[in-house]
Amino acid sequence: MTRVKFELPADDLARATRFYRDVFGWSALELPFGYVLVDADGDEVDVADADGGISPRTEFVRGPVLIIDVPSVDGAARRVVEAGGKLLNAKERVGDHGFSQYVEDTEGSVLCLWESVRDPREPLGEA
């Protein structure tokens, strides 16, 4: 089963965070690298199990983006290209939390592939 989360773009992270807290009762946790994790149930945000995030608006995150949890960003990125999609950036490490890579499907929708960091003794890469 694939887990899907969401990412919302914002020009002002604090303003966007207040909006979603005030309007929908979401809980939020600002990470030290300019990203806000959110939980739609209003409970304390669990970094490993957040529902989604609020991201600074970038060239890839211009509208809402689905974040798709995959066992391997490398493997999923290869399958995206094989199926006719495009890679938009290189795989990036996101703090101690995992790896991400933005891709575009065959219809022009932007997706974010997400690979959580595993036990440091377990090798990363193809799965």
From TrEMBL:
SUPFAM superfamilies registered for this protein in UniProt: Glyoxalase/Bleomycin resistance protein/Dihydroxybiphenyl dioxygenase
Tell me which domain of life the UniProt entry assigns to the organism this sequence originates from: Bacteria
The cross-references to InterPro entries, in alphabetical order and at most eight, read: Anthracycline_SecMetBiosynth, Glyas_Bleomycin-R_OHBP_Dase, Glyas_Fos-R_dOase_dom, VOC_core
Name any one Pfam family assigned in the record: Glyoxalase
Q: Where is the VOC domain?
A: 2-116
Signal sequence span per UniProt? none
Q: By what name is this protein known?
A: VOC domain-containing protein
Upper classification of the source organism reads: Bacteria, Bacillati, Actinomycetota, Actinomycetes, Pseudonocardiales
